[in-house]
Structures are given as structure tokens and as C-alpha cells.
Amino acid sequence: MSLRAGWVFLVAGVMGGASATWAADDAATLVEQGHWRRARAAVEAALAATPNDASLRALHADVLQAFGEKAAALKEAEKAVELAPKSADAHYRLAEVVGESAQNAGPLKGLGLAKRFRKEAEAAIALDPNHVEARFGLMEFYLEAPGIAGGDKKKAAALAGEIERLAPERAWQAKARLASERKDTTAVEAIYREAAAKYPDRYAARMALANWSLAPWRNARRTAEEQALAAMAMEPGRVGPYTTVATVLAAAKRWDELDALLAKADVAVPDDLSPQYQAGRISLVEAGDAARAERHFRRYLSQPAEARAVSHAAAHWRLGQALEKQGRRDEALAEVRAAVKLDPKFEPAKKELKRMTS
């Protein structure tokens, strides 16, 4: 129920000093770019100076949610609404926290959370009739929620129309989501291509087409590479373009170019080694180079994973696969066991462990 791409929670509250303001603004930018660990340090520093700033509390909730600290995120989002009950942004931040929790809850609890999401998103729109993000969120709600919880495809389409009226430059995102819901892949591709052509200076449009083109069955990885390189030139501090290009280069076995790209990514985005993980995955699964895959997975495991990035449990599991393909079964088994220990609910590793020990 959360459309996160391109969203920045604007820090607009009155701050207690210039340094706190700068820290908050820095944190908002870091959240937008996916630098969650750095964002956490920045927003918590700002909160230490101004603990009753509602917009900071809401931003903190966003960061905590990214780290999987759901209870703390909910508490912060509720505190933001308590501090600023007439803030549309605070209500929508609470809606997003609730909505993300609803997606992983059981049927009964999920139903209650879904209804609460809708209530908070609607409150955001009532407070700010021009709130585009709340409309995106509600559109997702109407598309994903079952009828008993209020799901309604017609209402989703109506919201897409409202988004086009309020933010014409983002209409393509709403239209692509509706087309995806209909499983109209031809329409989705056309929408992405049109958006990239119409808004060539927009990161989101470039990356939408890049990631759509990345799937091997679409035979469009040249497009994926071109679009991701354009996005990289616009925003070299974001990890997404490097990850996409790494996938293309590994699949094509363009090893020298891949190594150069990864070295560049390590400098530009040192806190997120996702390009290394994807290089390893594609080297293993598509290129059949288990030794190279091992190197990339070990590099990925050399520092903590960024929030919302691939978990270390998944990386240990993949490393185990790479080692087994090289005939190093005991080492492989140790990695799979490490994956299960890190995340006992990670099904791929559990299945792998059962196969290897039965």
C-alpha cells in the first residue's frame, strides 16, 4: 500500500536551531536516496535537539520502518500525529507505517490495519486536497485490498484520474500501475517508454524503464543499461543504477566493465553493496561463474546490509550455492546454516539445508 518511489517527507516544522534544520534536511534527502543508515544518524541527531518536532518524528518513523522496527515506527508515527493533528503529511506517514504492517499481518489483524490505513490516508487528503502521495497510497489500497476491506478497482481508476489532474508529470506512474494490475504488459512498456522520452531528466522515469527492461525474457537489456546509465549521470549517489548496470554486465560476461563499474559504485555509494550482490547472483545463475559469484557475495557480506537491501541471510544462502557448485560442500553447508541461523524464516535456505542434510 506504499508507493515510495520519488517520495521525500518534507521537513517543514519550526526547528530549534540552524544545525538541527540542516540535519533534518540532510536526513530527508538521504531517505529519498535510500541511504538509510546515514539518514538514521542525521534524523536522530536532529531529534536530540528538537524532540517535539512532528515532521522529524514522522521522518524517524520512515527510517525505523525501513530497518524493520515496526513497533517503534508506529509509535513515532502516532507521536507525529499527536504533535501535529492537522498535518496531512503526518497522517499519511502514519498510514504508510500501518499499511506496510498490514501486508505482513494475519487475516484478522490485517483487515483492521487496512481499514486504519484507509482512514489515515483519507484524513491526509481531507487536510490537504492536493496531497498526491496519499492518493497514490489509496490507489494501491483499492487495488490490493479484498472487497471486505474496501478494495475497489473503479475507485483506484478514479484516483489515478485525480493524480493526473493534480500532478500531470506523475500520471504515468498511476497509469502504469493500473495497466500492471490488468496484466497488460504491452501497455506498461509503452507507458514507461513514453515517460522516459517525455521526461528524460527525471530519475524515476529513467529507472522505471530500466528495471522493466531488465528481465531476461524481455530481451531489452541494452535499453536497461542505457536508461540506468542516464539515471546514474543524473544522480550518481543512488545505488539503483549501479545495481541495474551490474546485472546487465554480469549477464553478458563483460567482466572488465563489471569490475570497473563495481569499483565506481564502491566509491559513489559505499554504504550499500547491492551491486556486488546482484553481480554475484547473475554470475551464478545466468553466467555460470561460481568462483566469481563467490567473490561478489563475500564482498557483499563484508559490511552490514543497508536497510531494505538484500539480507545477509540471502547472501549466505547464495554463497553456499556458489561454493557447492565448486565442489566445496562442507563450506557450502556452513554458509547455508549461517543463513538459517540469521533468519530462521528464510524458506530458500531452509529448503537448501534440508536437501543438503537429508
- CATH architect. name of one domain: Alpha Horseshoe
What's the total number of strands? 0
By oligomeric state, this entry counts as single chain
- Tell me the fraction of residues in β-strands, as a range: under 5%
> What percent of residues adopt helix (DSSP H or I)?
over 70%
Structural class: mainly alpha
CATH superfamily of one domain: Tetratricopeptide repeat domain
Low-confidence stretches: 1-21
Number of helices: 19
Integer-rounded radius of gyration: 22 Å
| Mean pLDDT metric | 91
CATH topology term of one domain: Serine Threonine Protein Phosphatase 5, Tetratricopeptide repeat
CATH class of one domain: Mainly Alpha
Largest sheet: none
From the spread of the alpha carbons, the general shape counts as globular
Task: Summarize the structure in words.
- It is a single chain.
- The chain has 358 residues and is mainly α.
- The protein has a domain of 160 residues: Tetratricopeptide repeat domain (Serine Threonine Protein Phosphatase 5, Tetratricopeptide repeat).
- It is 72% helix and 0% strand.
- It is built from 19 helices and no strands.
- The radius of gyration is 22 Å and the shape is globular.
- 47% of the residues are buried.
- The N terminus is likely disordered.
